[in-house]
Structure formats: C-alpha cells, structure tokens
Design goal:
The protein has about 190 residues and is α+β, with helices and mostly antiparallel strands. The protein has a domain of about 100 residues. It contains five helices and seven strands, in the order ααβββββββααα. It is elongated and about 105 Å long.
Amino acid sequence: MRKVREVRAQLEDIMTQHKYTVQSANDSCIVRKAICSAYFANAAKLKGIGEYVNMRKGIPCHLHPSSSLYGTGFIPDYVVYHELIMTSKEYMRNVTAVQGEWLAELGPMFFSLRESHESRKRQEEIQAKIMEEELNIEKSKKEKEKIMQKQKELAYQRYLKSQVIQPGQLGGCENEKEQNIQFRKNKLRYRGL
C-alpha cells in the first residue's frame, strides 16, 4: 500500500503542476482500461478452469494464489499481468481482468476481433446500402446537370428568336467575318461558357 500512496502522490503533483483538477472516479473500468493500455503485451486468455494461456507467446500460466482474483468464483475471460513467476507452475502476479475489445482497441498491432458470420453479413449489407446511396446521388447530380444544360439551350434559343436581324446584317455587323465572330460570341455567352 505504501507504493500505491507514493504513486498517487506523484500523480497528484503532476496534475497540480499542469493545473488539472484532481477527481476520483468510482468507475473501475477506467482504471482497468488504463492498466490494459500499459500491459496489453502481457495479456492472457482463459483456456480451462483457472488456466490461462499467454496470447502472444502461447505460454500456459495460472493465477497466483495471492491474487485477489484467485478463489473468488469469478474467472475473467481475459487478464493482463505484470510478471510471471516460475515455480512448479507459471503464475501470473499483479493480475487485472480486462475485456477482449480493449485489447483489440489498445493493441491493434497484436490483437484483432474475429467477426462472426452474421456481423460480416450485416456489415456487407450496410456497405451495399452506402454504395447504392452514393450511386443515387451521382445519378441525381447528372440529371441536374442535364436539366441545367437544357435550360441554357432553351435560353439561347429564346435569345436568338428575340434578335431582330436586318437583311445583310447579323447583330449590327457589316461584313460576313464580323457576323460569324459576333454569332460565336453570343452563342458562348448564352451557353454559360
């Protein structure tokens, strides 16, 4: 307990130096998750009654009799430990119960979750819906572009009909070359280019 008090005092000093408020949490999951983030490399999975196997090295190990988890009737599926003691059996000391999802979250380079067939199928359905929605969005964009193009063409045709052209002149130009240039400029302007 003396070591625990020393660590707590160090943490309080660090918090006050950085001007953070010191709050105690009643939720043990936060503390267990913090321990898991430090010791995820020493994770073990339940193999049998009271027997665990190291998830990275495959070493069989057991809960130490002095552990608080030993003999409680609660046998967690996943644990992390600080050290292994070699006697007639290999015992884990300083053991904390963790959740398998935490290992995959905090140590993704070592652990991953296996997906069941139903969850994979559900994920594929979700992906198919997303792709279908994206396709519908693209179709609606193309339809809008076609409608805008038709509106521009109609506006240009209305413009041409509204122009009064005198014989031998197109838009007030004297020679044929100027008429063609003026015609192209008007056409580009009303098409929005």
